[in-house]
């Protein structure tokens, strides 16, 4: 099983590098301090909340699912400290957002957009903090993802990695058919 995963991962990396090259970008290796967490053994929500609590200026988050109270509360605390928080949500999944996300949307320094529901999934589970740190992985921002599912959470301390995500975030954030979040 692990060997097939490694082969699949290498193939995915090679495909991504080929796509970057085709777009005129030379894929550069990123050297960075990386931390890996695996759930459900690690408290993934606590990891996310701690990372968000470290933000000083900006958080750009792309979230397929955002329902975890600890993560939403950390985003609210960040916004109250003056951190600019931008959330980009999947069009269909965001419809299941509860009142906590509605409260977050009403918080100063928070802007929430959702991908148009007629488009394919926005399946990212990533964010960048202050242009210096990137969080990615398979874990949604939900209780079930953090406590019950087999997931990974990858934290990359790298301006290059955070910058690459920021470029992609700006691209999806600027889609003309994005919708404002209405709880």
Structural overview:
Helix 2 runs parallel beside helix 3. This protein folds into two domains: 30 residues; 148 residues, Endonuclease, Chain A (2-Layer Sandwich). The chain starts with a helix and ends with a strand. An eight-stranded mixed sheet has the order 1-7-6-5-2-3-4-8, with helices on both faces. By secondary structure, it is of the alpha+beta class.
Output the keywords.
single chain; 183 residues; alpha+beta
Tell me the radius of gyration. 16 Å
Into which percentage range does the β-strand content fall?
15-25%
Show unreliable segments.
Answer: 1-12
Quaternary structure of the protein: single chain
Order of helices and strands: HEHEHEHEEEHEHE
What is the topology?
Blueprint: H1 2-22, E1 33-39, H2 44-53, E2 58-63, H3 69-80, E3 84-89, H4 99-105, E4 110-114, E5 125-129, E6 133-137, H5 143-147, E7 151-157, H6 159-173, E8 179-180
Parallel strand pairs: 2-3, 3-4
Antiparallel strand pairs: 1-7, 2-5, 4-8, 5-6, 6-7
Helix pairs in contact: 2-3
In short:
With 183 residues, the chain is an alpha+beta fold. The chain contains 6 helices and 8 strands. It has helices spanning 2-22, 44-53, 69-80, 99-105, 143-147, 159-173; strands at 33-39, 58-63, 84-89, 110-114, 125-129, 133-137, 151-157, 179-180.
